[in-house]
């Protein structure tokens, strides 16, 4: 048992071990990526870590790509998948909307981190 490794998120076993870039639980067989240094530092300092749809840690000023077409109230089209959004700002938004940004053709709005991917 390594005291520096987190317990298994699935079964809470304390006997996790590292295998390359993954952490593995010998009791239930669950594998998950080891936390990156920036995510671990932010978690240790009490900051909220915001991740995109594939698990990359987001930061203020990043450029992201929308991964699925989004409906926008009052707009006939919406934001299409593949649209790049530059210079995002992370906020503690309402109802899971944790990215504040300006989308070309739509103006300022908030997006959920679960519908974007870091570019």
From TrEMBL:
<dbReference type="Pfam" id="PF03831">
    <property type="entry name" value="YjdM"/>
</dbReference>
<feature type="domain" description="Protein YjdM N-terminal">
    <location>
        <begin position="5"/>
        <end position="33"/>
    </location>
</feature>
<protein>
    <submittedName>
        <fullName>Phosphonoacetate hydrolase</fullName>
    </submittedName>
</protein>
<dbReference type="InterPro" id="IPR004624">
    <property type="entry name" value="YjdM"/>
</dbReference>
<keyword id="KW-0378">Hydrolase</keyword>
<dbReference type="GO" id="GO:0016787">
    <property type="term" value="F:hydrolase activity"/>
</dbReference>
<dbReference type="Pfam" id="PF08274">
    <property type="entry name" value="Zn_Ribbon_YjdM"/>
</dbReference>
<dbReference type="InterPro" id="IPR013988">
    <property type="entry name" value="YjdM_C"/>
</dbReference>
<comment type="similarity">
    <text>Belongs to the YjdM family.</text>
</comment>
<dbReference type="InterPro" id="IPR013987">
    <property type="entry name" value="YjdM_N"/>
</dbReference>
<feature type="domain" description="Protein YjdM C-terminal">
    <location>
        <begin position="50"/>
        <end position="119"/>
    </location>
</feature>
